[in-house]
């Protein structure tokens, strides 16, 4: 385990011994579920930046529905644990976290691109083939940790850190870009109204000429 204060581990990283994810004799800085979420986002960012960098639209409706379904498995995991229907499993926490993070990115990333670029590209996943390959890539991230080596631990932690920083950047970037665009549109509309008022002829006073 990386040497960080215990309070920081518990409150920020959600790390506790019973939720720890061990890879290659090392423990992941985050708990198993958060490690999966951020690793999924990090892996998704790597994939999208390489293959769909300018994608500015969410997937088509059927693919988007499937992405939401796979992402919602995390909540099924939480609900079944809360209802005490099964024993806790850090493997399931990690897997459902990866699926949640990777599929969440298919909605957050194109939103950012559509706001940041004047001419964004098409859907982030244009076909079922592209989406299934993407899901297989996420599954590969999950199975990669089964190598149980220091390199596998380093890769998982690196993806999680990248995903953690990336999702903060995307979410805050969306907020900032929305604010800037709304201000720009407001000022542009105000200038057009002012220009329109200047072009409108003013009525003359007095009686019309006979």
Please describe what this structure looks like:
With 210 residues, the protein is mostly helical. It has one domain (33-182). Helices cover 67% and strands 5% of the residues. The protein is built from seven helices and four strands, in the order αββαβαααβαα. It has a two-stranded antiparallel sheet with strand order 1-2. Helix 3 (61-71) packs antiparallel against helix 5 and helix 5 crosses helix 6. The longest helix is centred in the last third of the chain and has 50 residues, at 150-199. It is globular, with a radius of gyration of 24 Å. The N and C termini lie far apart (96 Å).
**Roughly what is the average pLDDT, rounded to an integer?**
86
Q: Stretches where pLDDT falls below 50 for ≥5 residues?
A: none
Assign an overall shape. globular
The biggest beta sheet is recorded as: 2 strands, antiparallel
Q: N-to-C SSE series?
A: HEEHEHHHEHH
Total count of helical runs of at least 4 residues? 7
SS class? mainly alpha
Give the distance, in angstroms, between the N- and C-terminal Cα atoms.
Answer: 96 Å
């Amino acid at each position: 385990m990386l040497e960080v204060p215990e309070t920081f581990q518990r409150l920020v990283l959600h790390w506790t011994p019973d939720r720890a994810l061990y890879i290659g004799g090392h423990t992941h800085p985050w708990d198993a579920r958060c490690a999966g979420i951020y690793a999924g986002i990090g892996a998704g960012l790597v994939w999208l930046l390489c293959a769909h960098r300018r994608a500015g639209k969410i997937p088509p409706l059927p693919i988007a529905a499937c992405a939401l379904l796979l992402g919602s498995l995390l909540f099924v995991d939480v609900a079944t644990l809360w209802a005490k229907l099964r024993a806790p499993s850090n493997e399931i926490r990690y897997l459902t976290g990866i699926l949640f993070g990777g599929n969440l990115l298919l909605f957050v990333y194109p939103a950012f691109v559509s706001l940041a670029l004047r001419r964004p590209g098409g859907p982030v996943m244009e076909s079922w083939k592209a989406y299934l390959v993407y899901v297989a890539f996420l599954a590969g991230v999950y199975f990669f940790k089964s190598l149980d080596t220091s390199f596998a631990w380093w890769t998982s932690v690196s993806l999680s850190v990248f995903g953690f920083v990336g999702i903060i950047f995307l979410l805050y970037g969306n907020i900032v870009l929305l604010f800037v665009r709304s201000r720009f549109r407001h000022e542009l509309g105000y200038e057009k109204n002012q220009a329109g008022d200047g072009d409108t002829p003013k009525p003359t006073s007095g009686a019309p000429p006979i």
